[in-house]
Design goal:
Elements (H helix, E strand, L loop, with lengths): L5 H11 L5 E6 L2 E6 L6 H11 L6 E5 L2 E4 H18 L7 E5 L4 H12 L3 E4 L6 H11 L3 E4 L1 H7 L3 H4 L2 E4 L11 H5 L17 E7 L7 E6 H21 L13 E4 L6 H14 L2 E4 L5 H11 L3 E4 L1 H13 L9 E4 L6 H10 L4 E7 L7 E5 L1 H5 L6 E2 L5 E5 L12 E6 L6 E2 L3 H7 E2 L2 E10 L5 E6 L3 E4 L2 E4 H8 L5 E11 L3 E10 L7 H8 L11 E5 L13 H19 L1
Parallel strand pairs: 3-12, 5-6, 5-7, 6-9, 7-8, 11-12, 11-13, 13-14, 14-15, 27-28
Antiparallel strand pairs: 1-2, 3-4, 9-10, 10-20, 15-16, 16-17, 18-19, 19-22, 21-22, 22-23, 24-25, 26-27
Helix pairs in contact: 1-9, 2-4, 2-10, 3-4, 9-10, 11-12
Length: about 575
């Protein structure tokens, strides 16, 4: 059989492979195409995957010098499910927060919470006390598993918010009980039997938006499972579209290095959740270090790496420094931010055995969306890729909500069972982006006649710094808390390494003097370090305004960038 087109491969796989058979389902009043035979929820996914992996004997998880087989991991999940129910009184639908760096407990707990029908609330490990306070209040989560740094930040909230903190790893000495004390002496526990509907809530993950505060994105089991099997199906279709050469060796078992934070959908979904049905092994890093990543890739024979573009560039430099070619890599993906087109050629030349890939997705879509890899990407390095089939639909809308023709720019709008259920506690914000199953993403782009999508701009005022989304209004709100600030405007500044960094221009009140250094020191107590502007322009005159009397962000940014360029030219 010769190479198939994408449409032919979709038809072949959905008709001949029962795993990917489709049906129609009505979800919250809207009809979608969905996978018919996939696990209905995360607990079923875990149990089915364990049975498929050498009856649980295969190695599954590596963290530093610790290792888990599938059986070990599943048993730890079952133990924590029991602990949550019987020792901590967690019931179906309760929200349980996780606040920690990448570690095995984050994976075990997220799956244990889901397995009893409760809802994991993922808290950004970089948040300040103030930001954690907001999310805990917003989610109504009072039980929190956290490591030492996060426990210290939440200690001032314990009495006022009625929190129960459970220490994990280096946080165990700070709480009683701790993760270990709750689970010790429990060797084998049967899986929980709580009934879980596929449309029950699975998780709340926070995503920056155009409002100053982050929004809690409510994701369901159906959404997560359909996203996972969408990606799994792409792997099944790949050899049909690009058949391997006769006599080619079987591809090795997928072995994944997880470097992106597990409070981001990029890590939880296409890395962790997908690893289960894909039979992959995971290796976790709790802090990015390119040289250590290169050593781990060699030692664990890592085949798949997915990180922000900055990390791909760092990996090139590290492999040169260590004189290693990282030859086991066969997939080098990008998520969280758009990879610079020039980087595609660099990576292709430096890692010739790896498929260089890109992807676009959102927290609101369970990370499902658009992507491509290999020669397709090399030929179109500025594109985001094609829509992943078969459960998604795509259109491009103008400001009035009318669909624009092929080739014309519009707002990327996606219909899929993977779309979020809602924004937590924000019905108006939900209604603005979600209607009849269609999600208006806030990203502008166009599609060509072959189905390749190019993302042009963002309608949302969001800065993507090394894969971290930063809402301009969030930073502006923090700046306005300084007594000297009359007005503030935040914008992106291009950065060679991180893609974008944060810039700000402020107007001070008459007689109030401040500086960029003073403001950065002030902001450190209010917002996470990665949100603090690298450059701040202070002035006493009013910030420029447009015809509608709003601050002209674009003009102000252009003026500040010009000043920055002149300063850098003078210094050189």
């Amino acid at each position: 059989m010769g190479a198939m087109t994408l449409d032919q491969a979709v038809q072949h796989v959905t008709v001949t492979d029962p795993v990917f058979e489709l049906e129609r389902a009505v979800v919250r009043g809207t009809e979608y195409r969905v996978f018919k035979n996939i696990p209905p929820h995360a607990r079923a996914l875990l149990q089915a995957s364990r049975k498929a992996q050498s009856d649980g004997e295969a190695e599954y998880l590596v963290y530093r010098h610790e290792r888990w087989r599938y059986d070990d991991f599943v048993n730890d999940v079952n133990v924590m499910s029991f602990v949550l129910q019987q020792k901590l009184g967690v019931s179906k639908g309760d929200r349980v927060a996780l606040a920690m760096r990448n570690c095995p407990e984050a994976l075990i707990l997220s799956m244990a919470i889901a397995s009893i029908g409760a809802v994991a609330v993922f808290l950004n490990a970089w948040w300040t006390t103030e930001e954690l306070d907001y999310a805990l209040h917003d989610s109504a989560a009072t039980l929190v598993f956290a490591d030492a740094d996060r426990i210290r930040r939440m200690q001032p909230l314990v009495n006022r918010a009625g929190l129960t903190l459970i220490g994990v790893r280096d946080g165990e000495a700070l709480t009683d009980p701790s993760y270990t004390s709750l689970s010790q002496k429990m060797r084998s526990v049967e899986p929980p039997t709580v009934e879980i509907d596929t449309d029950d809530d699975f998780a709340v993950m926070y995503s920056s938006g155009t409002t100053g505060r982050p929004k809690g994105v409510v994701l369901t089991h159906r959404g997560a499972m359909n996203a996972v099997f969408t990606w799994l199906m792409q792997a099944v279709m790949a050899p049909l579209i690009d058949p391997p050469q006769p006599g080619a060796a079987e591809p090795p078992r997928p072995t994944v290095l997880v470097v992106t934070p597990l409070f981001h959908v990029t890590a939880t979904h296409p890395l962790f959740l997908l690893s289960l049905p894909a039979g992959a092994k995971l290796t976790l890093m709790d802090k990015w270090d390119a040289h250590e990543a290169a050593r781990i890739i060699d030692r664990e024979k890592i085949t798949r790496f997915l990180g922000v573009p900055t990390q791909s560039a760092d990996l090139v430099r590290a492999s040169k420094d260590l004189a290693t070619k990282l030859e086991t890599l066969n997939y080098l993906g990008s998520g969280g931010a758009k990879r610079p087109a020039a980087q595609v050629d660099v990576l292709t030349r430096h890692f010739p055995a790896a498929n260089i890939a890109t992807g676009w997705g959102m927290t609101e879509t369970n990370a499902n969306g658009i992507g491509m890899m290999g020669q397709d990407y090399v030929d179109r390095p500025g594109c985001a890729g094609r829509l992943y089939p078969p459960v998604q639909d795509l259109k491009f809308l103008d400001d009035a909500g009318a669909e624009v023709p092929t080739g014309q720019m519009g707002e990327i709008t996606v219909k899929s069972p993977c779309n979020m259920r809602c924004y937590l506690n924000k019905p108006e914000a939900t209604a603005q982006v979600l209607s009849d199953g269609w999600l208006r993403t806030g990203d502008l782009g166009f599609i060509d006649t072959e189905g390749y999508v190019t993302i042009v701009d963002r309608k949302k005022n969001i800065i993507i710094r090394g894969g971290e989304n930063i809402a301009c209004l969030d930073v502006e709100d923090a700046l306005h808390r300084h007594p000297a600030i009359a007005e503030a405007c935040v914008f992106s500044i291009p950065d060679e390494r991180l893609g974008e960094i944060v810039g700000a221009a402020v107007q001070t009140y008459p007689g109030c003097e401040t500086s960029g250094d003073d403001l950065r020191a002030f902001l450190a107590g209010h917002i996470a370090r990665f949100k603090i502007p690298a450059h701040i322009w202070c002035q006493t005159s009013a910030l420029p305004r447009g015809a509608t009397d709003k601050i002209d962000r674009r003009a102000l940014r252009a003026m500040c960038l010009k000043t920055l360029q002149e300063t850098e030219n003078a210094a050189s």
